[in-house]
């Protein structure tokens, strides 16, 4: 249904008449976008009429070619409507609409109208999602395998919360990541996309993340068999965390190999209580401390286990 500020004259004896556009200060109004058939509106304007302009305000430009073939979009005072033959027409508002335009439409056309989440909004597009946080006042995009993992973890209702960064290149240039309110997801071609959160993420950050001895994660966090904590696997080591402990600790190399052979956290050694460190008085020697003992590496004597 056309709004009252787009009156038509239906007396065809006087010939077809075009919409009369009144003048409003500071606002450039545009008529409904006509197709070749003067009396058929475009899919975008049909959507706008169905919404009765809710949230969008007035048009501020004509329909424009979209970022990909067979599609268009139109700008409004408070948002946009995107349309393609594949996706149909959908409304996007506020920060998410602004983000989509800043990205020059690279996420593709909207798959549905913008929806609400706890403390924010989200919109799904052909090639990624954009999320807006009421806490940060920003909108951020997530796509590809990082988005896939984020959805597996429950998306905005999961353990990570809303994204607080766009996808970003890692410091070593070999991977990508998104930061979230309660963690991050880190991806590389070799390892895939895995989340990091809590004390394990804190320890990983302290070590230098993907530039550390551990490199990239190859799993999410996993509950230990005894249920007393969790651990996460990386390309060259593990990080262990005991519930309610003050910190998480890494184990790697030959010391990790021996620890796993003994049964890791289910062994008499229990959980690690230190990172691997130099063994005093032994050149090249290393030691990791555990709740009930130590594992020592000596370049001459090899690996030894000592219980307390």
Fold blueprint:
Elements: H1 43-51, E1 64-65, E2 71-76, E3 79-84, E4 88-93, H2 94-102, E5 115-117, E6 120-125, E7 128-133, E8 139-142, H3 144-152, E9 168-169, E10 175-180, E11 183-188, E12 192-196, H4 198-207, E13 222-223, E14 229-234, E15 237-242, E16 249-251, H5 253-262, E17 277-278, E18 286-290, E19 293-298, E20 302-307
Antiparallel strand pairs: 1-2, 2-3, 3-4, 5-6, 6-7, 7-8, 9-10, 10-11, 11-12, 13-14, 14-15, 15-16, 17-18, 18-19, 19-20
Any overview of this molecule?
This protein has 308 residues and is α+β, with helices and mostly antiparallel strands. It folds into 2 domains: 1-112, no CATH class; 197-308, no CATH class. It has 5 helices and 20 strands. It has helices at 43-51, 94-102, 144-152, 198-207, 253-262, and strands at 64-65, 71-76, 79-84, 88-93, 115-117, 120-125, 128-133, 139-142, 168-169, 175-180, 183-188, 192-196, 222-223, 229-234, 237-242, 249-251, 277-278, 286-290, 293-298, 302-307. A 4-stranded antiparallel beta sheet has the order 1-2-3-4. Strands 5-6-7-8 form a 4-stranded antiparallel beta sheet. A hairpin with a 2-residue loop joins strand 18 (286-290) and strand 19 (293-298). The N and C termini lie far apart (82 Å). The relative contact order is 0.06.
């Amino acid at each position: 249904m056309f709004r009252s500020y787009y009156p038509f004259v239906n007396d065809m004896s006087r010939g077809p008449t075009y919409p009369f556009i009144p003048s409003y200060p500071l606002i450039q109004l545009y008529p409904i976008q006509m197709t070749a058939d003067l009396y058929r509106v475009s899919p975008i304007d049909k959507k706008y009429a169905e919404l009765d302009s809710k949230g969008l305000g007035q048009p501020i430009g004509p329909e424009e070619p979209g970022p990909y073939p067979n599609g268009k979009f139109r700008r409004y005072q408070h948002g946009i409507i995107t349309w393609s033959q594949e996706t149909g027409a959908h409304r996007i508002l506020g920060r998410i609409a602004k983000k989509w335009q800043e990205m020059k439409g690279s996420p593709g056309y909207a798959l549905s109208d913008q929806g609400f989440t706890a403390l924010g909004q989200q919109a799904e597009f052909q090639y990624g999602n954009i999320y807006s946080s009421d806490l940060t006042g920003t909108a951020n995009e997530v796509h590809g395998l990082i988005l896939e993992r984020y959805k597996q973890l429950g998306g905005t209702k999961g353990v990570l919360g809303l994204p607080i960064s766009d996808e970003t290149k890692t410091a070593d240039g070999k991977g990508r990541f998104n930061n979230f309110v309660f963690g991050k997801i880190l991806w590389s071609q070799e390892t895939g996309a895995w989340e990091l959160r809590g004390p394990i993420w804190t320890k990983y950050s302290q070590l230098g993340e993907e530039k550390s001895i551990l490199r990239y994660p190859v799993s999410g966090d996993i509950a230990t068999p005894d249920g007393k904590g969790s651990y996460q696997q990386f390309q060259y080591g593990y990080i262990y965390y005991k519930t309610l402990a003050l910190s998480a600790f890494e184990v790697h190399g030959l010391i990790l190999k021996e620890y796993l052979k003994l049964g890791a956290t289910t062994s008499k050694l229990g959980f690690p209580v230190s990172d691997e460190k130099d063994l005093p008085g032994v050149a090249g020697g290393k030691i990791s401390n555990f709740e009930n003992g130590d594992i020592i590496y000596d370049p001459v004597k090899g690996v030894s286990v000592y219980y307390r």
